[in-house]
Design a protein that fits this description.
CATH superfamily of the largest domain: Butyryl-CoA Dehydrogenase, subunit A, domain 3
Shape: globular
Number of helices: 14
Number of strands: 9
Order of helices and strands: HHHHHHHEEEEEEEHHEEHHHHH
Number of domains: 3
Strand content: 5-15%
Bound molecules: flavin-adenine dinucleotide
Radius of gyration: 21 Å
Length: 390
Amino acid sequence: MNAMTETNNFTSEDERMLLDAIDSWVEKSVKPIAKEYDHEDKYPHALVEEMKELGLFGATIGQQYGGLGLPASVYAKIVTRVSSVWMAPTGIFNSHLIMAAAIERAGTEEQKKKYLPRMASGELRGGLGLTEPDCGTDLQAIRTVAKKDGDHYVVNGNKIWITNSGNGGGILLLVKTDPTAEPRHKGMSMLIAEKGDGFIVSNKMKKLGYRSIDSCELAFQDYRVHESCLLGGVEGKGFQHAVGGLELGRINIAARGAGIAEGATRLAVRYAQERKTFGKPICEHQAIQLKLGEMATQVEAAKLLVESAARAYDSGQRCDMEAGMAKYFASEAGVFCASEAMRIFGGASYSVEYEIERYYRDAMLMCIGEGTNEMQRIIIAKQLVARNAV
Ligand SMILES: Cc1cc2nc3c(=O)[nH]c(=O)nc-3n(C[C@H](O)[C@H](O)[C@H](O)COP(=O)(O)OP(=O)(O)OC[C@H]3O[C@@H](n4cnc5c(N)ncnc54)[C@H](O)[C@@H]3O)c2cc1C
């Protein structure tokens, strides 16, 4: 069983009340600001304070550390609901919770007690620092090095695209503690890196979509971190720690893709009833009906795949194939539904007055993050063969 499910006694009534509270918050606080904040690429500070009150920063952290201890299946529904209105804010708690899950899964008891309560309250917010300018998919090629100096590590190197690194207080940082190790992954470690001297946020990146959220370039210049911050207390396990979080990470991305698909379809269904051509609403033209029928079916299929992968995760089963399928299908459904909705909106889709263009810009990221969809299909195929070996 996962740590999450051991600690909560979540009933379906609790789930309904929590999801109702999320729906009200989305309607009251997220929906009204999405367009302006996205266009101006402004960080939603007030939303962050409300996320703290809702307990979102501790959503999947165990109750013994001050979190809500939600199962992945409930958490995924929260992510889908928020993303169906505006995907970007989910990154503020999502990447943070991936960092927390790694500490909860692989950290020492001392590390869990030190970091998880502060993370659950949102006092310390973080993310994952894996990608570098020269490598994303091939993580074993990273060049950031942590060299031992007494009871500290001295870190030098660069990271790119690190979500939450501008406004957050720290990240889980993938480094090489032995750059010459063979195989390469044996020389990799994770450090719990809070901001301090030598941890430099060098650039907030300008993006096509997923705006308002800080994705930054980082430079580490003789950044010193105490050896007690080595995740799990043992060197050489960093690659396992990084890939160990991928199942949950992929379920999260899948939930966002399903949300984008659902939100884009909702907008299209509404517009298709309001817009008239040739004397009738466009939803009465068969060409539009074919689109809506396909979109609605993909939304339902995406949500069911997310739920099935999340339930497999909650029950403690190995679910890399299921999480990969959910991530692949739901993110492609997001792209499909957003682009079909653009066609249904016609010329209006190209106006920034309508919100559908944001879904179109945001959707593509889900095909890239947490392992590209090219890699997902390779993972699915390898598992398929392994599980059906002759
Ligand atoms: C907005 C945004 C936010 C992000 N947030 C974070 C974050 O918080 N933390 C973090 O660490 N990273 C983050 N990333 C980075 C993201 O995880 C990487 O971009 C992603 O893993 C892909 O890596 P890459 O960009 O280096 O592409 P590459 O690895 O260079 O891949 C380029 C292309 O080659 C394909 N390819 C590569 N290897 C193979 C192979 N063996 N077989 C088949 N095809 C292959 C890929 O599928 C892709 O199509 C973020 C990225 C973006 C855009």
